[in-house]
Design goal:
- α4 crosses α5 and α6 crosses α9.
- By secondary structure, the protein is of the alpha+beta class.
- Helices cover 51% and strands 22% of the residues.
- The two termini are 33 Å apart.
- A hairpin with a 4-residue loop joins β4 and β5.
């Protein structure tokens, strides 16, 4: 997905404001399995996904818990670093080779000060990220594993073709055995 499309899907910007953002972005590529962000580190960049798929996960004592997948057109950001300037709690791993658009948080914050349209764009960006997080939380708290799997099929079926089932199971909050059982029941 092209950068202009990604930026404009957050909130439309006038051409002059869009150009200011475009000037601050650089395209970069990383290999599959690259760890783009690490828990416990302040992240100084945010990324927009041109091609590829990534996952966000955190470690527990026993295992990793995947809590987000991102693909073409989505933003990779450590909200704790972006909003509060603090170390993030997530790891971001590339599940495919990825081409990303990189934007330094400091440059974006400067643009917020200089351009009201970009500042409003940033507010819309943060609001949309909050809504996505709230939807994931509600799904995890109020839906059964089978309901969460059906929702995944309806909204993001492509994940089943591109993501290992162990990560899908972790994302759904179940074991791979339970995922196999749910998949067989649905068939």
């Amino acid at each position: 997905m092209q950068l202009i499309q990604i930026v404009q899907q957050v909130a439309p910007l006038p051409d002059a404001s869009l150009e200011k953002i475009m000037e601050q972005v650089r395209e970069t590529a990383f290999a599959k399995n690259h760890l783009l962000m690490r828990a416990g580190k302040i992240e100084r960049n945010l990324y927009f996904i041109k091609t590829g798929i990534v996952r966000a996960y955190a470690h527990t004592e026993e295992h990793e818990i995947t809590f987000w997948f991102g693909s073409e057109g989505e933003t990779i950001v450590s909200m704790n670093s972006y909003v509060a300037g603090k170390a993030g709690y997530e790891n971001i791993e590339l599940l495919e080779p990825c081409i990303l658009y990189e934007l330094k948080t400091e440059a974006l914050q400067r643009l917020y000060q200089e351009d009201l349209h970009i500042a409003n764009w940033g507010r819309k960006f943060a609001e949309k990220e909050l809504i996505k997080t709230e939807e994931r939380l509600i799904s995890r708290q109020f839906r059964t594993a089978a309901q969460r799997y059906k929702e995944l099929l309806e909204e993001n079926a492509y994940l089943l073709q591109r993501v290992p089932l162990c990560h899908i199971a972790s994302y759904l909050g179940i074991t791979q055995v339970s995922l196999s059982r749910i998949r067989s029941d649905i068939r």
